[in-house]
Amino acid sequence: MRLVLIRHGQTNSNLTGALDTAYPGAPLNETGLAQAAALPEKYERLVGVKPARIHASFIGRAQETAAPLAKHYGLEVVPDEDLREVLAGDMEMETAKEYTDVYLHTAVAWATGQDMERRMPGAENGTETLARFDRGIARLTEGLADDATVVAVIHGAIMRVWGVQRLRGLTYELIAQFPCQNASMTVAEGNPEAGWDLKLWSDQTPESWPVIPGDTTLRTSKETREILESMIYH
Q1: Backbone CA torsion sign across 154, 34, 224, 204
Q2: What is the enclosing helix (H) or strand (E) of 42?
Q3: Is pTM beyond 0.90 here?
Q4: Distance between CA atoms of 199 and 207, rounded to whole angstroms?
Q5: Domains and CATH numbers, the chain
Q6: What is the pLDDT of residues 95-120, one digit of tens each?
Q7: First-to-last C-alpha distance (Å) of the chain
């Protein structure tokens, strides 16, 4: 089975670095809408197989992102609350570094498996977060043939935390240095029982990313976007 994870398109909260995780959330901005509109062409290029199902986080920006792809293939988007973002809890919509650091450091503890019981203030712990997302993936894949392709439109932090815990071949250094960019695709093959093998991370093969060995500083998507904009890939 092929699992395609798509991060939602850009919102203004992405630009400001706000911890925007609650329903309904900020809508796609102009750039995000253009990214969503371009998804069918990108999907055809990177995946090229009609999905059997398209599920998406019930948060508005994920639903908006999924809509053009679903329309292209004549499918309905199935909303799933379990596919939502890592919850910020009491820090919801904060932008100050003192709060974003807590969010990132907690995500590090989960991604590395060092402290799965650490809790986001007023929200879930790592064990609860991964179990929730596992349920969403189980529903997405339930009852399908081994050669089926499925799509989940989700969020950036859960992509990193769940991905590094569940996708073989995804390293902590890669998710730390290069979080998935808006409207990018991560592709894995396998199934929930046997596990998943990473094929693409944020539109590229894992080995194509210029990962610096030993650099484990977890960067925000905003920081990474600024780095990527200053780099030239050959």
Answers
A1: positive
A2: helix 39-46
A3: yes
A4: 10
A5: 2-233 (3.40.50.1240)
A6: 999 999 999 999 999 999 999 999 99
A7: 31
